Amino acid sequence: MAHSPAPHDVLRSFDDHDWAEGAATHLEHLVEGGHVLHFPALAFVLRPGEERFLDPAWSDGRAKNISLRAGTLRGAHGDAAALAELAALISRYAEQAQALVERLFPQYRGRLRAGNASLRPFDVEGRPSSWRKDDARLHVDAFPSNPMAGVRLLRVFHNLNRDGRPRTWRVGEPFADLVERMAPRLRAPWPGSAALLRALRVTKSPRTPYDHMMLQLHDLAKADLDYQRNAPQAAVDFAPGTTWIVFSDQVSHAVMRGQHMMEQTFYLDPGDQLVPDTSPLHVLERVLGRPLLRRPA
Ligand code: SIN
Ligand code: FE
């Protein structure tokens, strides 16, 4: 098992310049070990006429991203012909991200499920938000309405900025360190709360004890300004034209600056990992000393 990297050692760089072909492969141990795989020469090439879609004016003003899932475009407005072109752009990104992960992670072939692909046109710094939604604070990804029940979030990002601006992240301490630090503050869910949240349609499926713990890790980190300032961390610049891949439910991250990004989410069962022990589910269960999912007998 790869040891979990200190923040300044999180990045692993590869010189690939083609999505479908290249020397890099069998990188499961690195990405599962908490590294960010970094491809500074792997560009997503816009076709003539597509640059106009970088304008935030294509957003419908409600969603913060323009996303595509199962062929349906969300969060954009415009005439039908333009929206079809915008959907084609995002769909091309989804295909290239798929080719890339299949090449890099042979172990996951046929097991990764594609979620949303999105174009994120807004300037990171102009985005008003509550502390809980503020992704400029270090966090691991966990979402109140979307219980994952242990399923992993693997994300392929690309900086599409045309003005030379990097996307600047901070990356934090290894997941096990975060769990150990927060463990004294982690509370079990109230009995019956999962059924209540489901009945009230706060969640799309029952919030498992695993999801409850992940949300607390997310919220405790974001709400703790001392943690934000003093936790182990390193700044990372992703230059325009850079692609990067990370398990965002595991690697603590924050976005500080940048504009124009593509993103594709993949889901993976922890049992399909090369080393399932590195999953947030297993780390949480190990540190807390109890099961966090009801598994079929
Ligand atoms: C996040 O997942 O926290 C957002 C990353 C980004 O916008 O660069
Ligand atoms: Fe995040």
CATH architecture grouping: Sandwich
Helix content: 25-40%
Structural class: alpha+beta
CATH class: Mainly Beta
CATH topology: Jelly Rolls
Global geometry: globular
What pattern of helices and strands is seen along the backbone? Answer: EHEEEHEEEHHHHEEEEH
Mean of residue pLDDT values? 95
Ligands, deduplicated: succinic acid, fe (iii) ion
Q: Measured on Cα atoms, how large is the radius of gyration?
A: 19 Å
Cα separation of the termini:
28 Å
Number of helices: 7
> How many strands, which pairing sense, and closed or not: the largest β-sheet?
8 strands, mixed
Number of strands: 11
Strand-residue fraction?
Answer: 15-25%
Q: How many domains would you count in the coordinates?
A: 1
Question: What does this protein look like?
Answer:
By secondary structure, the chain is of the alpha+beta class. The chain has one domain: Jelly Rolls. 25% of the residues lie in helices and 20% in strands. It is built from seven helices and eleven strands. The chain has an eight-stranded mixed beta sheet. The chain starts with 10 loop residues before the first strand and ends in a 9-residue tail after the last helix. The relative contact order is 0.21. Fe (iii) ion binds at residues 135, 139, 141, 248, 253.
